[in-house]
Amino acid sequence: MATLVRRFDPFRELASLQNDMRRMIYAEGPGERGSRAWIPALDVTENEKEIVYAFDLPGIPEDKIAVDLEDGAVTVSAEREREEIPSQHGLHRYERHFGSFERTIALPAGVTEADVKASYSNGELELHVRKPELPKPHRIPVAKSETAGSKSEDGAIEGKARKKD
Questions:
Q1: Which pLDDT score is estimated for 133?
Q2: Do the beta carbons of residue 114 and residue 137 sit within 8 Å?
Q3: pTM of the model
């Protein structure tokens, strides 16, 4: 019979430690079947006209996804439900995330509801946010100053104050 010896791999040990810490923070027990907090992966890309936010949401029906725009931020929330698996199937470990999540992303100033489009396909939610037009600089003309005691263009009379004796 062959004996397998696992070589020390610092990255595997670090990943294991991260999983243990996550379980401790979210109070997960082994084989726990309640919902837990999770945050799906997000990619952000940008081109000249828009910013695209792509969320990985596999296994979530479209009707369980909400996208809300309020106060210059977009909030994406969803819920993935876990099917109850009978114990006779011998499942020993749950690694796939389930439950609900909510993620809020600040948008550039000037973005309106008409600038945000959402699409969902093959477990990926994409938010396309059109970039607002940047304000253009305005030149303000400089008026010639008037001499003291004369009338200005708006009809106000200008003058100098004198000291009383």
A1: 83
A2: no
A3: 0.58
